[in-house]
Amino acid sequence: MTQNAIEIERELGIVVERMPAFPKSVQRILELTRRVDCSPKDLVGIIEKDPVITLKVLRVINSAQLSLPTKITSINQSVVYLGVNTIKNLALSIAAIGILPASNAAGFDIDRYLLHSLTTATLARQLCALYANGEADPGDCYIAGLLHDFGKIVFARFKPEQFGQVLARCAAETGLSSHHAEQALIGADHTLVGAMLAAKWQFPAPLVECIRNHHSPAAPASAMSDCLRMADLISRLSNQGDSEHPYREGEAPINPQRFGPDLDRVIASLGDLDKLIAEARGFAQAGRAS
């Protein structure tokens, strides 16, 4: 590593430390739901001890976007209607949304970013269930999708002038990926700072490495990385936000061996894609509103 690279990483480390902490209640939810003996009662108990998360979960569940047939008045009732995994993902999404800035001087579109992240998370979870063969946990793949581009939020908040230049360059040069522009103008890309942030938030090492390597063709393949990359591609192809990394016609996924060469077949295997996207869009709209 060059002296300049060392200095850039040190500077980014200082910036990452300025980001808010991830809520301890959500960290406890994630730890709990990784256990095989996790019970709905245990999950309800953790959420109900955090009045902020409880209020926001109930607001999102009762929003028009989810269109439930009856009003949900408790976390226990929400688990009965939607299941442990959906409530876990909802709590995680609300926590991540709560850290997003309302605006930023770089001109980064937070709503497009959020829609892309939530869609990628939803698709990564589904792809894992279908293609990972037990090599990764669908919940971890959801987290990877949700957080994979969070480094861009760090840039937008703490390096707005340089990141604004990145956005302008991407807009002017069709087909230029944001991570390449970040490397050129900032000296590091969002994958590095996103991994540093995930490590600060004490997420497991495989998840941190997945975020770090999601744009690196040379990185070792893994079930989580494969599902994240494919989900990111399908999300951008479906025009569900792009986090300033638009789909390029004919773009091929990195390490496609797990899924085979037929992208249309992979998309068809997901079932009702519109329903999965609607779930992500509902979380995004209701979560920002709450």
Provide a descriptive summary of the structure in words.
There is one protein chain. This protein is mainly α and 290 residues long. The chain has a single domain, classed as Hypothetical protein af1432. The chain is 65% helix and 0% strand. The protein is built from 16 helices and no strands. It is globular. The model has no long low-confidence stretch (mean pLDDT 87).
Descriptors:
about 290 residues; mainly alpha; Hypothetical protein af1432; single chain; 16 helices
Question: What's the order of the H and E elements?
Answer: HHHHHHHHHHHHHHHH
Query: Which homologous superfamily in CATH is the superfamily?
Result: Hypothetical protein af1432
Percent strand: under 5%
How many domains comprise the coordinates?
1
Low-confidence stretches: none
Distance between the termini: 44 Å
**What is the molecular shape?**
globular
Gyration radius, in Å: 18 Å
Share of helix, binned: 55-70%
Strand tally: 0
Largest sheet: none
Mean pLDDT: 87
Tally of contiguous helical segments: 16
CATH fold-level name: Hypothetical protein af1432
Tell me the CATH architecture: Orthogonal Bundle
- Highest CATH level, the class: Mainly Alpha
The structure class reads: mainly alpha
Give a short overview:
This protein is an all-alpha fold. It is 65% helix and 0% strand.
Chain-wise SSE layout:
Blueprint (H helix, E strand, L loop, with lengths): L2 H15 L6 H10 L6 H9 L2 H11 L13 H8 L1 H16 L10 H22 L6 H10 L2 H9 L1 H13 L5 H8 L4 H11 L4 H8 L10 H15 L25 H7 L3 H17 L1
